[in-house]
Design brief:
Elements: H1 2-20, H2 36-45, H3 69-77, E1 83-87, E2 92-95, E3 98-99, E4 107-117, E5 127-137, E6 140-146, H4 149-187
Antiparallel strand pairs: 1-2, 2-4, 3-4, 4-5, 5-6
Helix pairs in contact: 3-4
Length: 188
């Protein structure tokens, strides 16, 4: 019985010490929102916690690749060449080396294209295209970054295709849901 009293006394002293150190603070309802979502938002804004999932930073918030017109257009445009890396979440597509021309001489010229997505919006600065060239002469290869019309042509082709894909998606939505939604609003 004495051990139990001593244990309770020690526990009481420990709780008082934790409370005086600021570990446990009593809070007023007026200072803290009652709604869980608002409380979480306030804590994150004040730097008191972390949040996983939808409320996380915008860096991890991605649309599905199949719903992004730029991504779909890029995959369709690069259909002719094998891809080394196609990371939607990383925002990059890298092709494998492929021959630009078929000549039977000892000199070979291969190209590799890197496509970086800078935004999901369809606009001129949404993607960055880089072309690398590898020229091999007698088993000696040199790789260079090339600035050519090919970069602009690829970018333009992707933007045109993405615009068509987005327009088709909007037309399908309008046909299925847009008209029906307008009918339900007018019938009320």
């Amino acid at each position: 019985m004495i051990n139990f009293k001593i244990l309770n006394l020690l526990l009481f002293i420990l709780i008082l010490n934790l409370n005086s150190c600021g570990f446990y603070k009593r809070s007023d309802v007026a200072d803290n929102p009652v709604n869980v979502d608002e409380r979480v938002k306030k804590n994150i804004q004040e730097g008191r916690g972390i949040r996983f999932g939808k409320g996380a930073t915008r860096g991890g918030d991605f649309d599905f690749a199949s719903s992004n017109p730029l991504w779909r257009a890029s995959i369709e445009i690069f259909d002719f060449v094998p891809l080394t890396n196609a990371s939607y979440s990383g925002g990059i597509i890298i092709t494998d080396w492929f021959s630009a021309e078929n000549n039977n001489s000892s000199n070979t010229r291969d190209l590799k294209i890197t496509l970086k997505f800078l935004t999901n919006d369809i606009r001129a600065d949404a993607i960055d295209v880089t072309v690398f060239e590898k020229i091999c002469k007698n088993n000696e290869c040199k790789t260079n970054k090339v600035q050519s019309k090919l970069e602009k042509e690829i970018k333009l082709a992707i933007l045109k295709k993405a615009t068509i894909i987005e327009q088709e998606g909007f037309d399908k939505y309008y046909e299925k849901k847009g008209k029906n939604k307008a009918k339900t609003l007018t019938s009320k």
